[in-house]
């Protein structure tokens, strides 16, 4: 690499220098990061289930709005009876 290019690239470096003490140990990610990953996955699963339930609810409402009132009433009675 030539000198002028290196001088300019060093002056506009956007990446912070990582010290050896800040690096992730060779044994893997720190324990705190692993527990945060578990929490994030659990939150994602909960949101996914909530979205699936909401989608089913609104899909049923949309479907019922297109049928005759007698059929909608019949479906409600069948649902109430189990």
3D structure, described in words:
By secondary structure, the chain is mostly helical. Helices cover 68% and strands 0% of the residues. The chain has helices spanning 3-11, 31-64, 69-81. It is elongated, with a radius of gyration of 29 Å. The model has no long low-confidence stretch (mean pLDDT 77).
Itemize the secondary structure elements and their pairings:
Elements: H1 3-11, H2 31-64, H3 69-81
Transmembrane segments: 33-58
Protein name: Transmembrane protein
Organism: Rhizobium leguminosarum bv. viciae
Pick out its properties.
68% helix, 82 residues, 0% strand, single chain, mainly alpha
Short characterization:
With 82 residues, the protein is an all-alpha fold. It has three helices and no strands.
Mean pLDDT: 77
DSSP E strands, number: 0
Helix content: 55-70%
Low-confidence stretches: none
Largest sheet: none
Tally of individual helices: 3
Strand content: under 5%
Helices and strands, in order, run as HHH
Shape: elongated
**Terminus-to-terminus distance:** 76 Å
What is the C-alpha radius of gyration, as a whole number of Å?
A: 29 Å
Keywords: Membrane, Transmembrane, Transmembrane helix
Protein name: Transmembrane protein
Organism: Rhizobium leguminosarum bv. viciae
Transmembrane segments: 33-58
């Amino acid at each position: 690499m030539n000198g002028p290019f290196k001088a300019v690239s060093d002056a506009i470096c956007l990446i912070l220098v990582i010290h050896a003490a800040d690096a992730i140990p060779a044994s893997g990610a720190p324990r705190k990061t692993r527990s945060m990953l578990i929490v994030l996955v659990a939150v994602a699963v909960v949101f996914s289930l909530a979205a699936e339930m909401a989608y089913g609810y609104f899909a049923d409402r949309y479907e019922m709005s297109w049928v005759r009132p007698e059929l909608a009433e019949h479906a409600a009675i069948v649902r109430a009876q189990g």
